[in-house]
C-alpha cells in the first residue's frame, strides 16, 4: 500500500464523528475551517453549531450586523477571523451571487482565505487535487520523510507544499486531506505519538533514526510583549435606581478591533493609585472626586499569542453625570474580549 492508501485506510477506520463531515456544503465546510483555525475541535464545535443556527446560509451571515457576528464569536479569540468571515460572506453574495466559488484559485480571492483553507474547501467539496498543509500535516510529513527544514521558513513552506501535493491520491482527495490532518491530530501527536500502533511506522524515517521529538523544526520564536492595562469601571445609579456603567469600542488595527471594553488607561509599568487618580477624570470625562477602589491587587494576566496583558480593574463609584452610560443589564448585548467577560462574571454587576 502507498502512503496515501495507508492514511485513507486509517482515516476510514478511525475518523471522529464531526458535524461538518456530514455535508459537502462549502459554506459549512468553510465555517468549520475558519472556526478551527488555532482552535481545538472540542472548543470550536459549539461555535460551529451557534453560527449555523444563527446564519443557516451565507446570505444570512452576509446580512448580519458585525456586532452580532463578533458577539457569537466571543471567547474564540483572534477576532480578525470573525471580521474576515463576515467580509468573505459579503463577497460571496456580492461577487458570486451567493454561490461559493468551486475552485482553489477563486476561493483564494475571498477575505481571510489562504492556501490551506482554499485547499481544504476545494478538495473536500469539489475533489480538486489541492493538498492541505496545516500543523498536523507538517508534523506527519516531516517525521515520516525525516525532513528537518524549518516549517516556518520560506523554503520549508514551499518544500512541504510540494511534498504534500506529491502525496495526493488520484481519487478520494477530500478524504485523504481530512485523513492526514486527523492522523496528525490523534495519532502522530506533538508529544508521545502512538508509534507502536502506527500504520506507517515501517516507513517512518524519524522513528528509525530516533528523531521523533526533534521534528518538525521551527525557528525564531516571536518575542512576547508585556503590556499593562488599567480598566476604569465607572458605576453610577440613576434617579430611577438603575445601575449604569460605561463601555467603549476599540478602534484601529490592534487587538480586539471593534470589541467593547471599559475605559482603559495603558501604562508602561504597574500603575499606582495616585497615577490612576491623576488620569481618571480626563479618561472618564468626569468632574469631582468619586470613590475609587482596586478590584484585584494581583495582576490578571491575559495571554495572547504575542503579548501578555497584565491587567487591573479599578472600580470608580458614586459617579455623577456619567456620560454615555450603559445599563448594567444591557452589558450582555455587547461583544467583549474574554478578559472583560470574565471580569463581568466574577464582579457580578
Automatic annotation (TrEMBL):
<keyword id="KW-0378">Hydrolase</keyword>
<keyword id="KW-0326">Glycosidase</keyword>
<keyword id="KW-0227">DNA damage</keyword>
<dbReference type="Pfam" id="PF00730">
    <property type="entry name" value="HhH-GPD"/>
</dbReference>
<dbReference type="InterPro" id="IPR029119">
    <property type="entry name" value="MutY_C"/>
</dbReference>
<keyword id="KW-0411">Iron-sulfur</keyword>
<dbReference type="InterPro" id="IPR000445">
    <property type="entry name" value="HhH_motif"/>
</dbReference>
<dbReference type="InterPro" id="IPR003651">
    <property type="entry name" value="Endonuclease3_FeS-loop_motif"/>
</dbReference>
<keyword id="KW-0408">Iron</keyword>
<dbReference type="InterPro" id="IPR044298">
    <property type="entry name" value="MIG/MutY"/>
</dbReference>
<dbReference type="GO" id="GO:0032357">
    <property type="term" value="F:oxidized purine DNA binding"/>
</dbReference>
<keyword id="KW-0234">DNA repair</keyword>
<dbReference type="GO" id="GO:0046872">
    <property type="term" value="F:metal ion binding"/>
</dbReference>
<dbReference type="Pfam" id="PF10576">
    <property type="entry name" value="EndIII_4Fe-2S"/>
</dbReference>
<dbReference type="GO" id="GO:0006284">
    <property type="term" value="P:base-excision repair"/>
</dbReference>
<dbReference type="InterPro" id="IPR003265">
    <property type="entry name" value="HhH-GPD_domain"/>
</dbReference>
<dbReference type="GO" id="GO:0035485">
    <property type="term" value="F:adenine/guanine mispair binding"/>
</dbReference>
<dbReference type="InterPro" id="IPR005760">
    <property type="entry name" value="A/G_AdeGlyc_MutY"/>
</dbReference>
<dbReference type="GO" id="GO:0051539">
    <property type="term" value="F:4 iron, 4 sulfur cluster binding"/>
</dbReference>
<comment type="function">
    <text>Adenine glycosylase active on G-A mispairs. MutY also corrects error-prone DNA synthesis past GO lesions which are due to the oxidatively damaged form of guanine: 7,8-dihydro-8-oxoguanine (8-oxo-dGTP).</text>
</comment>
<comment type="similarity">
    <text>Belongs to the Nth/MutY family.</text>
</comment>
<dbReference type="Pfam" id="PF00633">
    <property type="entry name" value="HHH"/>
</dbReference>
<protein>
    <recommendedName>
        <fullName>Adenine DNA glycosylase</fullName>
        <ecNumber>3.2.2.31</ecNumber>
    </recommendedName>
</protein>
<dbReference type="Pfam" id="PF14815">
    <property type="entry name" value="NUDIX_4"/>
</dbReference>
<dbReference type="InterPro" id="IPR023170">
    <property type="entry name" value="HhH_base_excis_C"/>
</dbReference>
<dbReference type="GO" id="GO:0000701">
    <property type="term" value="F:purine-specific mismatch base pair DNA N-glycosylase activity"/>
</dbReference>
<keyword id="KW-0479">Metal-binding</keyword>
<dbReference type="GO" id="GO:0006298">
    <property type="term" value="P:mismatch repair"/>
</dbReference>
<dbReference type="InterPro" id="IPR015797">
    <property type="entry name" value="NUDIX_hydrolase-like_dom_sf"/>
</dbReference>
<keyword id="KW-0004">4Fe-4S</keyword>
<dbReference type="InterPro" id="IPR011257">
    <property type="entry name" value="DNA_glycosylase"/>
</dbReference>
<dbReference type="GO" id="GO:0034039">
    <property type="term" value="F:8-oxo-7,8-dihydroguanine DNA N-glycosylase activity"/>
</dbReference>
Amino acid at each position: 500500500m502507498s502512503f496515501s492508501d495507508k492514511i485513507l485506510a486509517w482515516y476510514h477506520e478511525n475518523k471522529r464523528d464531526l458535524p461538518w463531515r456530514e455535508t459537502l456544503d462549502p459554506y459549512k465546510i468553510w465555517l468549520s475551517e475558519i472556526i478551527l483555525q488555532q482552535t481545538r475541535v472540542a472548543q470550536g464545535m459549539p461555535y460551529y453549531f451557534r453560527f449555523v443556527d444563527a446564519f443557516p446560509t451565507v446570505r444570512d451571515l452576509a446580512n448580519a450586523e458585525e456586532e452580532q457576528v463578533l458577539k457569537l464569536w466571543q471567547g474564540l479569540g483572534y477576532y480578525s477571523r470573525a471580521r474576515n468571515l463576515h467580509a468573505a460572506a459579503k463577497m460571496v453574495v456580492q461577487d458570486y451571487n451567493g454561490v461559493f466559488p468551486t475552485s482553489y484559485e477563486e476561493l483564494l480571492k475571498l477575505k481571510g482565505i489562504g492556501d490551506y483553507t482554499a485547499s481544504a474547501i476545494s478538495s473536500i467539496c469539489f475533489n480538486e487535487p489541492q493538498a492541505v498543509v496545516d500543523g498536523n500535516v507538517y508534523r506527519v510529513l516531516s517525521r515520516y520523510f525525516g525532513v528537518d527544514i524549518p516549517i516556518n521558513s520560506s523554503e520549508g513552506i514551499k518544500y512541504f507544499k510540494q511534498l504534500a501535493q506529491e502525496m495526493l491520491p488520484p481519487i478520494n482527495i477530500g478524504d485523504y486531506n481530512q485523513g492526514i490532518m486527523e492522523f496528525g491530530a490523534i495519532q502522530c501527536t506533538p508529544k508521545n505519538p502512538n508509534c507502536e500502533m502506527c500504520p506507517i511506522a515501517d516507513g517512518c524515517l524519524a522513528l528509525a533514526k530516533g528523531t521523533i521529538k526533534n521534528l518538525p523544526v521551527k525557528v525564531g520564536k516571536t518575542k512576547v510583549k508585556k503590556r499593562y492595562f488599567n480598566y476604569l469601571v465607572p458605576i453610577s445609579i440613576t434617579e430611577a435606581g438603575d445601575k449604569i456603567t460605561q463601555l467603549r469600542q476599540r478602534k484601529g488595527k490592534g487587538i480586539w478591533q471593534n470589541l467593547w471594553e471599559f475605559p482603559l488607561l495603558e501604562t508602561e509599568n504597574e500603575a499606582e493609585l495616585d497615577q490612576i487618580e491623576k488620569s481618571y477624570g480626563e479618561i472618564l470625562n468626569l468632574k469631582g472626586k468619586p470613590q475609587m477602589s482596586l478590584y484585584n491587587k494581583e495582576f490578571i494576566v491575559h495571554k495572547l499569542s504575542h503579548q501578555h496583558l497584565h491587567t487591573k480593574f479599578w472600580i470608580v463609584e458614586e459617579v455623577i453625570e456619567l456620560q454615555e452610560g450603559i445599563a448594567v443589564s444591557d452589558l450582555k448585548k455587547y461583544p467583549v474580549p474574554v478578559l472583560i467577560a470574565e471580569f463581568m462574571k466574577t464582579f457580578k454587576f
